[in-house]
Design brief:
about 110 residues, alpha+beta, Alpha-Beta Plaits, four-stranded antiparallel sheet, 3 helices, about 30% strand, RraB_dom, Regulator of ribonuclease activity B domain-containing protein, RraB-like_sf
Length: about 110
């Protein structure tokens, strides 16, 4: 299977080589960087207004807030990048940005 040569393509290629089943949907975790708690709360609301269920937590190790949520979908490059672009558009006015994704492997 061929994947684009960007960061998302590299991750998908790695997951494919590890034997992840690309024919079934997976819970993909998407992350959004948050500048501070107040804007993070506004982001959670904005994301919810757009149909996304995200949570926010403070990471003591890096001393930063982050928002995250899971979406059940297929591991398709164009769909993953489309979600990231949409998340970015929603949170950018509040000082945030889409900050990657991940999927649990067995």
């Amino acid at each position: 299977m061929k994947f684009p040569k960007d960061e998302d393509g590299k991750i998908l290629s790695m997951l494919y080589r590890e034997g992840l089943n690309f024919k079934k949907p997976h819970n993909i975790d998407f992350y959004v960087a948050v500048p501070d708690e107040k804007n993070g709360e506004a982001m959670i609301k904005a994301l919810a207004d757009n149909g996304y269920k995200f949570m926010m937590e403070y990471d003591d190790d890096v001393e930063e807030w982050t928002c995250f949520g899971s979406i059940k979908m297929h591991l398709k490059h164009n769909e993953i990048t489309a979600v990231q672009k949409k998340l970015d558009a929603i949170v950018k006015p509040l000082g945030g940005y889409a900050d990657g994704w991940g999927v649990m492997t067995e």
